[in-house]
Specification:
Blueprint lengths: L4 E2 L12 H10 L3 E2 L1 H5 L9 H6 L29 E5 L2 E5 L26 H12 L6 E5 L8 H12 L6 E5 L2 H4 L6 H8 L4 E5 L9 H12 L4 E6 L8 H13 L3 E6 L14 H14 L7 E4 L8 E2 L1
The structure holds iron/sulfur cluster.
Length: 315
């Protein structure tokens, strides 16, 4: 990530960003994007759906009553061992990296990024694997962060193999937005190596049809051709995809590239993203309208997080 665009750099002004405001936002919620993500933006169009996700906005600084950085007390949950948490009986979450290629402005973890304990050293990996082995009811490992695809090939493949070789594990799920924000990171060699175990699944996050660029298509094709199922978890975002036309174009586009539209998430009540939230009533109406427009294979489930629930709740 040597070429990352970090902070309120002057080139952001061309996209309508007020640099003084950006400085204040950066102090609270760091600005970071890839040159690739920047190249997709339209100069002078700050309300563009891609710009809204990538560029800082004054609305991030408005403190809405009742909204905190961690509404579901994620950070308070004790780790089972360094970098590994268990929220559900059959699944564990392993923090593989503490950074992302792009600091998405709508991120529900924006106040927590960079703070998590990450499985870094060989002994931490061995400890996490031993913990899973000692709990045979665990059948799925989710590698998340931050973005696991920011690890080197060697470290990522090693981490995946360490869990995939356990007979009890049916799936190693990788949560990554790299196919959207840094698609050239996904190479055929990496995809083939990840596909070897036949246990790897990838969940990504396309939020708008314009993110389905030739580079993103190539990245997803590498993964799918390597036998890795790729699903998409969209976040429902005001101004980005809160119309049936935008959601239809996104879901149809994803199906065309063999990426399954899996979930549409409602934004959690997190500080700094209130301006992106879509009402439950509007979300329900969008779900109905979309179901009338697109076949079941391309129809995602609209869900929300509920504190203490054992699964995502249909809206
Ligand atoms: S890639 Fe995901 S975790 Fe990372 S900043 Fe974007 S939304 Fe947040």
């Amino acid at each position: 990530m040597r070429h990352a665009v970090v902070g309120p750099v002057p080139e952001l002004a061309a996209y309508g960003v007020d640099l003084d405001m950006a400085e204040r936002v950066h102090h609270r919620y760091p600005i970071r994007l890839t040159p690739y993500a920047l190249s997709l933006l339209r100069p002078g169009a700050p309300a563009d759906p891609l710009a809204l996700q990538a560029l800082p906005a004054a609305a991030e600084l408005i403190d809405e009553p009742g909204m905190t950085a961690d509404p579901f007390h994620e950070t308070a949950q004790a780790a089972c061992c360094h970098g590994l948490k268990q929220r559900f009986p059959d699944r564990v979450l392993v923090m593989a990296h503490d950074q992302c290629a792009m600091a998405c402005r709508h991120c529900t973890r924006k106040g927590l990024l960079g703070t998590a304990d990450v499985v870094r050293t060989p002994s931490q990996v061995a400890q996490a694997v031993a913990w899973v082995q000692a709990h045979p009811q665990v059948r799925e490992v989710l590698l998340s962060g931050g973005d696991p695809l920011l690890l080197s090939d060697r470290r990522l493949i090693g981490l995946v193999r360490a869990f995939a070789r356990l007979p009890q594990i049916d799936a190693v799920r990788i949560g990554t937005r790299v196919p959207v924000t840094l698609p050239m990171r996904v190479t055929p060699e990496l995809a083939r190596a990840l596909g070897v175990s036949k246990k790897v699944w990838v969940n990504t996050q396309f939020n708008h049809a314009r993110e389905i660029t030739p580079e993103a298509v190539t990245a997803c094709a590498c993964l799918v051709d390597a036998g890795i199922p790729v699903s998409n978890q969209t976040v429902l975002l005001k101004g980005v995809n809160d119309s049936v036309e935008a959601l239809f174009a996104l879901c149809a586009g994803l199906q065309r590239i063999r990426v399954r539209p899996y979930y549409v998430f409602l934004c959690d009540p997190v500080a700094g993203i209130a301006h992106f939230r879509v009402s439950l009533r509007r979300a329900r109406s969008l779900e109905r309208e979309l179901a009338e427009r697109i076949g079941g294979l391309a129809l995602p489930r609209f869900v929300m997080d509920v504190p203490g629930a054992l699964c995502k709740r249909p809206i």
